[in-house]
């Protein structure tokens, strides 16, 4: 099928490449001319495992193209995806300006029937708004073309976006139009061979399904972070508790890792947007309010531990150098949108510390965000970050941080202490190497080996 995708970000680019790989002919449209020129030349705007090879292959096969020409994008394909951003407005609601702008563009240039498929995460009622814009602009043109607006939310995870898109666990199709449903069934047929993954429902339920999924996952994380806070005050070990509850299939092991709070471009924004939608409808979502509040607090926990450690010893962070491992909001991506590392760095700088940081792929993004500043050194390896540092803070659980040389760590860090926001290590092993180890939801371990210290 001929398909046009508006927006070549994490969702649009991956979706476009995966559809092209499955055999469709895809044209990706973006307003960012640099991004489009880069993609035409085969340069990826984001780090996503497997994406570059997929884009190159489908480009060479002539099934994937990029353009800034929106009119061509609209005229070329009967099926048009919307995959533009829906960032949070100041009041937490989703900003629909990009979605509605594309709707106007489609209505301005369409010259026959179109199916508009919304992949952006949008509040309930947005499909109606898109349809209204289409109707209005068509009426202004005096044109009379048939269209359907379908909700088809995306569930990919960054860092695994290509794999998730190639093997979706469900394909939500929100429409009451048999014509549109048949088109989407044909479009997704290559992804639907093993068993029927397509779940058809009304548009509003599809729109809400996306928020419900993200809110449920965010709730699991905030719940676990809440239990971690209780555990560390009681002398219990959250990792033992995690294994203990995860083995119950009704709970499961997924998304119950405690840490530095959820970040990224989706959970923080989508939980806030759902709260806003509920409030607008006259309902106070107290559970979601609490999920959000716990996350806000959790994102400060690592800094609180570092600062409390030094304060308890009569010192402060002023003049200290803190090594930071991990800047991306999660491993296998260079995305730093709402990354918990940003909270930590700002707090450390405010306390007068210098940061010496390493991330396997997000260094360029960090440079773009923070610019040149005397209290930030971005270095090329995890071990280089330790040189001359007083302590280490771990923010992202990259694979390359999982098995460090603890003796080298102990030698390099002046204060011989590790603050781990991701519980990467066995506390007894770290302590055996002469390091003090402060993690999330577990008692502090330190020298001499085997000693349990008071939580800081
Ligand atoms: N990032 C994810 O993991 C993820 C997963 C599922 C759903 N979503 C949702 O998908 C949507 C897109 O997210 P993203 O992370 O891909 O965003 P992004 O910011 O990475 O990309 C959006 C792209 O849209 C382009 N754009 C803006 N206006 C345009 C226009 N009028 N015409 C053409 N292109 C235009 C921008 O230039 C940008 O390249 C959001 O609603 C998001 O919540 C994101
Ligand atoms: O047990 C866990 C799991 C995740 N996280 C954090 O939660 C955030 C989000 O992680 P993840 O869900 O893996 O990444 P995203 O790429 O943000 O993907 C989420 O958001 C997307 C955008 O809506 C959805 O499509 C995905 O299904 C949904 O998982 C990150 O900060 C993680 O560190 C935890 O703290 N503990």
TrEMBL record:
- Database matches in Gene3D superfamilies: Cytochrome c1, transmembrane anchor, C-terminal, NAD(P)-binding Rossmann-like Domain
- Ligand binding (NAD(+)): 30, 35, 86, 121, 158, 269, 337
Which InterPro entries did the record assign? 6-PGluconate_DH-like_C_sf, NAD(P)-bd_dom_sf, UDP-Glc/GDP-Man, UDP-Glc/GDP-Man_DH_C, UDP-Glc/GDP-Man_DH_C_sf, UDP-Glc/GDP-Man_DH_dimer, UDP-Glc/GDP-Man_DH_N, UDPglc_DH_bac
In the Enzyme Commission scheme, what number(s) does this protein have?
1.1.1.22
Which terms does the UniProt entry file under GO BP? polysaccharide biosynthetic process; UDP-glucuronate biosynthetic process
**To which pathway does this protein belong?**
Nucleotide-sugar biosynthesis; UDP-alpha-D-glucuronate biosynthesis; UDP-alpha-D-glucuronate from UDP-alpha-D-glucose: step 1/1
Record protein name field? UDP-glucose 6-dehydrogenase
Q: Which organism is it from?
A: Comamonas serinivorans
